[in-house]
Amino acid sequence: MTSSPATPSPTGRRAVRSDERRRGVLRLASLLLAGIGAIAWLGRSADPASRPLAAGPLSLGAAIALTGNANLYGQDQRIGLALAERWAQQDAAGGRAVRVWLEDGASDEPSAIAAFNLLIRQGVIALIGPTLSQQAFAADPIAQRQGVPVVAPSNTAKGIPQIGHFISRVSAQSSVIAPLSIDEALRRDPSIQRVAVFYAHDDAYSTAEVQIFDKALAARGLTPVTVQRTQLADNDFQTPITNALQRAPQLVVLSVQAVAGGNLIRQLRELGYRGQIVVGNGLNTPNIYPICQRWCDGILIAQAYSPELNTPINRDFQRLYRQARGDRRPPQITAQAFTAYQVLHEAIQRLHSKGGLTGVTLGQARVRLMHELLAGRYETPLGPIGFSPEGEVQQQRFYVAEVRMDPSGRDGRFALVGQRSLNGARP
Amino acid sequence: MIEALLQTLLNGAASGGVYALVALGYTLVFSVLGVINFAQGALFSLGGYLTYLLMGGRIGVNGALPGWGLPAGLPFWLALLLAAAGSGLVALLVERVAFAPLRRRGAEPLLALITSLGAGVVLVNLLQILMGAEGYAFPQESGALAGLPEVLMIGGARIRTIQLLLLLVCSAAVVGLSLWLERSRGGQALRAVAEDATTAQLLGINSDAMVRLAFVLSGALAGLGGSLIGMSVSLPGPYFGIGYGLKGLAVLVLGGLGSVPGAIAGGLLMGLAEALVPAEASGWRDALAFAILFAVLLLRPSGLLGRRTVDKV
Amino acid sequence: MIDNGLLVQMLLGALLGLSVYLPLAAGQLSLATPAFYAVGGTLAALLSTRWSVLGATAAGGFPVLSLLLELVLGGALAGTLALLVGRLVLRLRGIYLAIATIALVEIVRVAILNLPFTGGAIGIFSIPQPFTDASGYLLTALILLVLTGWICQRLDTMPLGRAMAAIRDDELAAGCMGIDTTRVKLTAFVLSAVVAGTSGALAAHFLNTWNARQGSFDVSITTLAFVILGGSRAWLGPVVGGLLLTALPELLRPVGDVRLVLFGLVIVLGPVLAPRGLVSPELLERLGRWGSPTREQKP
User: Fold this and answer.
1) pLDDT of residue B145
2) Beta-sheet strands, E only, within chain B
3) Which chain B residues are closer than 8 Å to C217 by Cβ?
4) E runs forming strands in chain C
5) Where are the domains of chain B?
6) Which among A322, B201, C65, C138 is most buried, taking Cβ atoms within 10 Å?
7) Which residues of B are less than 8 Å from C104 in CB distance?
8) Phi/psi of residue A404, each to 5°?
9) B2-299 is classed in which CATH architecture?
10) Beta A251-255 vs A397-405: how paired, if at all?
């Protein structure tokens, strides 16, 4: 093989070339290996946790979905965080400055992990995100292992706070919320017997919520006459709706995401359904108005956030939102992102005034912050909230609203029809 | 019973018509180049957004220019045609950037799968930056339905009028395209290139021009489809065309690659099969489309109505 | 800039690139890699969370030996599936094969979503960890990659590899030369599945959670892009493509909202500027000649 022919024959040249190629492969492969080794060496966990906490502003890392399928939520969350930052600047005279470091957590698990890793290495004191529950199951364990507090603004799946004691959330599970709206529907029409249920079966949020609805229905002696499974990407519901309408339902329960929900409501009405519609928490956003327009009128929704709540902090939040966005009302997901920032901000200020942030390493500061966070009570746009020792949000007020659309059918509001206080309830 | 059957047929036809339209867009490009244009789904989204803007819709709060919109809106049907033309032009641009350079170098057709995919990624993300991720609904007053009821009853079965219109426009587009391909000189030239590019070249047909024509037509079909869907179910975000793109791919192969009647038959068949899935099993619906495809490929590799040819990639 | 976590993702990308490359080296455009990746990942997720014999601890730890067993089982299950499916689909050619394999990916995805024991849309979470940080995964993934690379390199000199190359050049002629084309193609397909299944089993632990979204049509196309951009004529091509394209969106973070637009442009322009990929046989030959003055012959 290695003979060097003076006058190369075709086969000889081929042999030489394959020999050269093999040597080339070997060289490039060793080069790559050396490169990977060098990157691994440079990138080995330069964990900033052992460094002393620097004076000056603290950074909060936020990894939310700015690209991919969940970007609709991400962009509403981005607003919430920006407003919270503005709110904090207004009243933080003498406190510790906090700024948000925003990264795109995209809509998939590897990106959420990469964003969390990046932010942790930048030395953030706590994390907000990621947007989807599935992403949280991937990225939260990483923060947990490195001892970085996480406040989830929108994860509602079962088992999120149980990932570890550094993981908490401000997004209440549907288990507490969903039954309220069914009660309201039954109050309006006690004769309801036949219920149709629609949910997006490839969506983590809807599949969790629909179980709650099922339980709530069963507890009231109702079994669904039909359950229609849709997909996240569906927007044309002609088939499931006509199937369901053949069973003559008196109440329709929907657990789908916002835009699909708007379409489902519109098509239900267009195809002739006149009964009551109860929708899940995913539709608690004005984003549905332009989709279902006048057909939205009269639907019932249980909310973890009501724009109508008349408290100083919610008025502040609404004012900031109006300044940024004109006269629309903020969606729940924006309020929850605001709240995630707010609880961290307040916990940091309390810790700061106690002197808990002086003379400690970043790692110790993270531990203390987590402790302080869980111990506090907060007056938020969502109402008064606190945390269980596990990190589960303990929200005291939930609301039932009815959508009332303007005569133009372009815009509307969630009019409060009921409110329930749960004292010391464990979600 | 008859009513239920009729309802199922209508449901199947309504979604099948859209599938056929998407598959037809792929078919045109495939028949002349033998490659699949993965940017088709993005062009579908683009058409919907163009129609929205042309009808005077405003950019939402998360877009690049919040609140911006054209000073005056066009009526739906005019906006629809202009949007189709616009999507056709963008398709031409995609051809120039992602396909033509590869063809000039005689590169493997495989590469075009990736370059067209890249073009799709660029388009969808540009749309998102410009328009934001929120859903948009077309301004209804100037809508296509002026004067018609929302729902039509046909023998006891119900269908939304917009869906019926969608089906009619799809059929018209499909029939028009088939006639054009059969009868007109341009259509015959296009088919000649699809049969055999070299011979067509010898006959004096400019095959490059035919390729461009195929792209413009397929882009226009995508724009048409996206706009009609947008009218029916609003624009659920810049990614909405991608899902239709994937389903269209299955339909394309089901009917037979490069076959126009095959694309139509495949679309309707797929729509019907999905409409027949009972509610209890609807979680498996998406697998059904591909399971049918899988079975058809194994039993009849050239598709239901495709020609039996030996091809290499 | 690149931390060890991202490096693990890059190495997994390179492995998936090789999984697409292997059938392609025998002329078969198979996009089934994500299906086998998903099968391997689901198996590992199920075994480590439900089967206590493997030794998952309450604190979330997991013996490395059990991980190795899962890697083997994940590869074996994916390989078996490939053996069954391959007999059917490998009769198809070109774009038909590509689309049949996409169908397979979708069927597997929907099945994982609907099966009663795979956790539905949320999937399987709290997957126990064999390593305390990313460096353990890094080492494992690197060993897998070196092993796969070594096999690919060995193939060049083995009858199997030559038969694959012959089929790639001209399947009909290869058949006439007495090559059992069905067996060779099937072997390449099964090898590809084993690589993907093993990678999936490792990825399930690395990602801490596993769900149906991990093996989707998108992954089919991205992994194909690894091969096309890196180069499909030498096994180092998909490796380089996988490493670079996985890192690229992360490295583009500083540009903000337009990062995916730039990423798309790279995918469009890459094959246009380098139709043979970044790592072409010519490049390797030049690299092999480099520094040895005896080889100064112009081809």
Assistant:
1) 67
2) 151-154, 157-160
3) 246
4) none
5) 2-299
6) C138
7) 290, 294
8) -120, 120
9) Orthogonal Bundle (1.10)
10) unpaired
